[in-house]
Amino acid sequence: MSDDNSEPRGGEEVDSDESPGFSNLERSDLDDEASSQGLFDDLLSGEPIFENKEVLRPSYTPHELPHRSDQINKMATILVAALRGETPSNILIYGKTGTGKTASAKFVSKELESTSQKYSVPCDVEYINCEVTDTQYRVLAQLANKFIEKNEARIDDRVAELEELLEALDEYATDAESDPEFDPAGAAPEDAVESDGFGDTDGPERATATTDEVASTDELATGNEPETVDESSPVHPLESTPFDSRGEVETKIEDLEADKESFEEVPMTGWPTDRVYSVFFDAVDYDERVVVIMLDEIDKLVEKSGDDTLYNLSRMNSELENSRVSIIGISNDLKFTDFLDPRVKSSLGEEEIVFPPYDANQLRDILEHRSNVAFKPGALSDDVIPLCAAFAAQEHGDARRALDLLRTAGELAERSQTETIVEEHVRQAQDKIELDRVVEVVRTLPTQSKLVLFAIILLEKNGVHSINTGEVFNIYKRLCEEIDADVLTQRRVTDLISELDMLGIVNAVVVSKGRYGRTKEISLSVPIDETEAVLLSDSRLSDIDDVQPFVQARFEN
Ligand code: ADP
Ligand code: MG
Fold it and tell me: Ligand 1 centroid vs 102 CA: distance in angstroms?
């Protein structure tokens, strides 16, 4: 494409007008009407910063995971049992967000599956993200449907094999018919017809008569491929199969097809949970195999729906006849097992693997590995990776944060049309990510908390300093009345303020007021305009059109 640029008018003006590689000079020569206004040209003309941005995204699974070999090896040591047909111990993996738990677990499960295929050991790994699939019903339904799918695929493979076997039987019979000395059981002896023979469809690899027999048959002596006939004796296709007759093979195919028909996919809602469980159970037990179920963000599932799922999964092995199940639970919350039934806790935590936070040096290694692929050579100035690593190390050693920072810094550099990413881009990226986080936290607050936060914002906007809980409560109460929301007690509102404090949205300090006792002084710790805009994007709050009276009202209480 770009080779054409030096000769933009090479006899094909219309086409070259649309060529994306045009330089400014060449474009200005062109007819105004046909030419674009250059919206994208400046952006295109700069040297791109990224070679491959995808490798910096969270969805990318790296092939190499520096500083996680201990954890990965430990998982492998436990899971290798599955490849020996034994049941691996259950594993519980802990670590804060961004410590590589999901990436490592996925890496190991990929290896496990491919090795099991290599050695033809039946082993299936199923991954479920419990943040998305967050009820027992959904987890079981998803697993049931995945195993039904696997069983169907297995049945299809098996049926295809059996159909090949039937074909082999046909050929065997045909060969037998055409060879008078060859007399397999059940084949009606009929004279072979010359023209019906060896010139046509049979492949060279077909099981065919022996060399001796060929020699004794005139027709074959003139055949096209005498050299392919080299087996010493024809092996009956059913030999070393569990079948004794063609009829048995056909029955088996029918049985398999009937099994396939009988699988009933679980709908995403509506069934009683025990029915879902039993479909799931049967689907898993349909075949002999070891099943590894990986439950990522397992703490979210327990928080939302209790530990019934884990209880049911962990007691399955005592009832399964053909298969065995092993569970890998992955949790961001180190203390989540405190909420588990003791039986579940001891079963699930047979083996525990901890993913510690990365330090700045480790994060630097991780970023360097990725940046080689992600960026054009020379796009990074030397201090960029160390700074991203340092910021992310402060953020509890979070590799996701480090990668986000690096990617965002690159995008900011790209937008400002510079050719290198410098320290300042990283600092801007840090601010941007922090603001994005605040926006997300505020957006997902419950309405009551939004109202409390809105009250604080209104007070600050009206120049009130040292805001106290009573003032917040008075404005909050009026906001509630205005939008017909329930009014919580002042005590509850105080709790909501503490929650906002913990989320880092407001800052509430207790100050002593001498003989008036102690009170909280509240201030906003996030950018006021952006936060207000997020609140007003909530349709309930945007109904409040004139807020001024509420603020004035605080003096009346
Ligand atoms: P967790 O599941 O612990 O929250 P992830 O496994 O999702 O963390 O990792 C977060 C991001 O950091 C992902 O993009 C992942 O690819 C990357 N990452 C984590 N650890 C490493 C590592 N050791 N090497 C390379 N990339 C890593
Ligand atoms: Mg994860």
Answer: 7
- SS3 per-residue string spanning 244-275: CCHHHHHHHHHHHHHHHHHCCCCCCCCCCHHH
Cα of 89 to ligand 2 centre, how many Å? 21
Written as six digits, the tokens of 439 are 């926006």
Q: Which amino acid is at 240?
A: S
pTM equals: 0.73
**Any ligand 1 atom below 6 A from CB of 102:** yes
Ligand 1: nearest atom to the Cα of 330: 2
522 ligand 1 Cβ < 6 A: no
103 lines ligand 1 (CB under 6 A): yes
Which residues are bridge partners to 291 per DSSP?
124, 325
Q: For residue range 493-534, list pLDDT tens digits in order.
A: 999 999 999 998 999 988 877 777 777 899 999 999 999 999
Residues pairing with 375 in the sheet: 50
Q: How many angstroms separate the CA atoms of 357 and 483, rounded?
A: 45
CA of 98 to the centre of ligand 2 (A): 7
Ligand 1 neighbour 406 (Cβ under 6 A): no
- Structural contact between residues 399 and 100, judged by C-beta atoms closer than 8 angstroms: yes
How large is the angle between the packed helices 136-178 and 273-285, nearest 10 degrees? Answer: 30
- Return the structure tokens found at 482: 């205005």
Tell me how far apart the alpha carbons of residues 305 and 135 are, in angstroms, rounded to a whole number: 6
**Burial classification of residue 175, based on how many CB atoms lie within 10 Å of its CB (0-12 exposed, 13-18 middle, 19 or more buried):** buried
Nearest CA to ligand 1 atom 24: 65
Query: What is the CA 119 to chain-centroid distance, rounded?
Result: 26
Distances (CA, A) of 424 to 250, 283, 513: 72, 56, 43
Å from CA of 99 to ligand 1 middle = 6
CB 399 less than 6 A from any atom of ligand 1: yes
Identify which ligand lies nearest to the alpha carbon of 104.
1
Burial 67-79 (b: 16+ CB within 10 A, else e): bbeebbebbbebb
C-alpha distances in angstroms, 453 versus 162, 389, 473, 495, 530? 68, 33, 11, 12, 13
- Sequence-ordered list of residues with C-beta below 8 angstroms from that of 260, at least 6 positions apart, any chain: 151, 152, 155, 156
DSSP state of 201: S
Smallest-distance ligand from the CA of 373: 1
Residue-wise pLDDT tens digits, 71-119: 999 999 999 999 998 999 999 999 999 999 999 999 999 999 999 999 9
Task: Find the 101 Cα to ligand 2 centroid distance in Å.
Answer: 6
**What's the rounded Cα separation, in Å, for the pair 294 and 130?**
10
The Cα 288–Cα 284 span in angstroms is 9
Beta-bridged to residue 270, according to DSSP, are none
The minimum-distance atom of ligand 1 relative to the CA of 62 is 16
Q: Do residues 392 and 363 touch, judged by C-beta distance below 8 A?
A: yes
Report the SS3 class of residue 107.
helix
Strand bridging mode 91-95 / 323-331: parallel
